[in-house]
Amino acid sequence: MERFLVEESENEGVGWRESQGGRAIGSLSFPFCHVKNSAEQPAGPVLHTESISMQSSAETVAQYLQELPADRREFIETLRQVIADSIDPRFVETMQYGMITWVIPKDIYPPGYHCKPADCVPFLSLGSQKKAVSIYLMNVYYDKTLEKRLREGWESAGLRLDLGKACLRVRKVSETALPVLAEIVGATTLDAYLEHYVGVLAKGKKSASAGK
Prior knowledge:
It is built from 6 helices and 10 strands, in the order βββββααββββααβαα. It has helices at 61-67, 70-86, 138-142, 144-156, 178-186, 190-210, and strands spanning 3-10, 13-20, 23-24, 32-36, 45-47, 92-96, 99-104, 121-128, 133-137, 167-170.
């Protein structure tokens, strides 16, 4: 079975962990990983569902929100509204991998998520964790210009930024630069994200073929 390395981003930094057969060996605390040098699977953003702590089994967004403590539900609902008001409306809100997730619907991209074709391609996820709320921003993961804008926006607001490779962790409204979040969410259209996603997959397949 082909073996490859997966970049693992955690609160304490970025490391590399060996993975096999498309599944990370061991538990990853940060779900967005980047596959490297795999002949089985092209390089691209990967969501390891087994790695998400406090993963909800809720089937609907309403059910998910109802499960949350009142104060956390209010915070999540505030963030959700900011995202809904800013995101390209062609992204569809759903529950995916235990989080509220905005995805590319199958009627726009029928092949689905390359790691799990039955699922839609995720763009942004919002989830309640033990000590914070996590916002997974795939556009920040691959677009360093957006990452810079996010960092500068938080700094300008006088707030401490807790950011991994793609995961923005926030704890309360007063510690969240909501206008900056809205700007980052709205900066990437569905077409732009899909073009990048398909391009990464094509590049990965080409590299895999060249390595045979």
